[in-house]
Amino acid sequence: MSLILEESPETRGNVTRILLYTFAVLATALWIWNHRQKQTRFYKLGNKIPGPDTLPLLGNAHLALGKNSSEIMALAMEFAQRFSSVTRVWLGPKLYIFLTEPDDVEVILNSHVHIDKAEDYKYFEPWLGEGLLISSGEKWRSHRKMIAPTFHINILKSFIGPFNQNSRNVVEKMRREMGKVFDVHDYMSGVTVDILLETAMGITRETQDKSGFDYAMAVMKMCEIIHLRHYKLWLRFDSFFKFTSYFKEQIKLLNIIHGLTTKVIKEKKKEYLENKEKGIIPPTLEELTKSSNGNGVNGDTKTLSDTVFKGLRDDLDFNDENDVGEKKRLAFLDLMLESAQNGSNNITDTEIKEEVDTIMFEGHDTTAAGSSFVLCLLAVYHEVQTRVYDELYEIFGDSDRPATFEDTLHMKYLERVILESLRLYPPVPAIARKLNQDVKIVTDGFVLPAGSTVVIGTFKIHRSPKFYKNPDEFNPDNFLPENTQNRHYYSFIPFSAGPRSCVGRKYAMLKLKVLLSTILRNFRVVSNVTEDQFTLQGDIILKRTDGFRLKIEPRKRVPSTPYEAEKSV
Ligand code: HEM
């Protein structure tokens, strides 16, 4: 600056001229680039789709600046209202297309071609590597084929023991909150990680040392960092993120997480080989999932959700009446190690670690949010809670016995409540895919160009008046058989659908029933917050920014009076 001031007026004029020329050349180059881009097929197809007005270069990115995740969620809802069921948004040169019409959603989700995850999933990579959630192509296909059977109903039935034990443990912990307002999500998160440690890695409470607790804490904190990176736009850039304290924290957390998974895999592998030498070989996946009637399907074990999800055409439709029993219980990790060792699957230790870490992530936050929303809704709608409890009283009376798999089949009203809660508050509120090929959708024959990102607005679809009468109202009867049978399958997709649907769907439903029934048999949940006061955070996992606050009261183990029961119908 001082240099310029000392120079002659003529030199100063030259500098100004050079700056102006440079600016003019740059601006012209940008304009030409912008104009030429607009002429490309990608831009032309993108711009045929309705969406908010754009600014040169920025597209619509300025609309997201300075907004927190709740405000971005509100904006997305406003766009969905203002534009059609197909809306485009440009974030600079990146094209995002939002779909909320089940016919269009089916075109994407039911396809075996459009299965690649959007770039937004990349923050998981340091943690989950190429695990099932983010992998693509042949790797995803072969691992999915290997992992889907480890969620066979026979294996899930053998998890009833840990589901019950951990649910009873959390009930004991929650007693200390009696009569106070507290955030129930903290408890749901803790119990979910404990259950996963046991069912995914085979680490029981008895075998768990401090590393199990540290792992659980690290999983929860990693989820928080990833959530932050989704809504704090500047943290999305690795080059910036690396200079923040979050990055240092992430390194520490990943050391804990990967340290434990690696250690457990090593120990389990050693144990397996030692047992093999002694001639003790665990049952194979094929043996555990063998069907008694040959076709693997048994109508007696079908639940309401099996019927609700039957049109979604995934690879989880197996059912069997064989009960493998407690003795044969194997965690996912054991099953993967066993199949790698006996040669039925070609999977390395690193890949096994990535899959176990993936299951720990996917199975944790989703069910913690899902169970917290159910409890908060029941705390608001007492008459629904009364009906749920009456059903539980019919099954268990005033006994304290643990739930059996058979009991869960009788929890029909509770199941409707869970499904309705997943409809109004889907834990995964949106699903994103990267398109590698152009796709023609049903609405107005729009062609979504290769290279764009498709965002499926589950939250919005679930609240469509076209499929639900009074769509914003909490009404478990939306899932009465007569109301579900003719509804578009893709109008209810909390677990996504098609070949890339949630592999833990049946696990989640079974666990939610055991956990929620145990809590509700012990406590009555109450809240003075009404549903319209819930503030939502539209992150990768839907949460309440105001916290999942409620109160618990001791449950009187008696059914409601006939008058109360009548009122609640
Ligand atoms: C209420 C609970 C749950 C909900 C709402 C849910 C929802 C979902 C959704 C929507 C997807 C697709 C995500 C996408 O395409 O971006 C998904 C994928 C997945 N989920 Fe879940 N999930 C739940 C529980 C679980 C549990 C308990 C596990 C495991 C124990 C699990 C394991 C997975 C895995 C491994 C994938 C990736 C599947 C693939 O890409 O092939 N989920 N989940």
TrEMBL record:
SUPFAM superfamilies: Cytochrome P450 (SSF48264). The chain crosses the membrane at residues 15-34. PROSITE patterns: CYTOCHROME_P450. InterPro entries: Cyt_P450 (IPR001128), Cyt_P450_CS (IPR017972), Cyt_P450_E_grp-I (IPR002401), Cyt_P450_sf (IPR036396), Cytochrome_P450_Monoox (IPR050196). Its cofactor is heme. Heme binds at residue 502. Keywords: Heme, Iron, Membrane, Metal-binding, Monooxygenase, Oxidoreductase, Transmembrane, Transmembrane helix. It comes from the Eukaryota. Pfam families: p450. One of its GO terms (molecular function) is heme binding. This is Cytochrome P450 4g15-like protein. It comes from Glyphodes pyloalis.
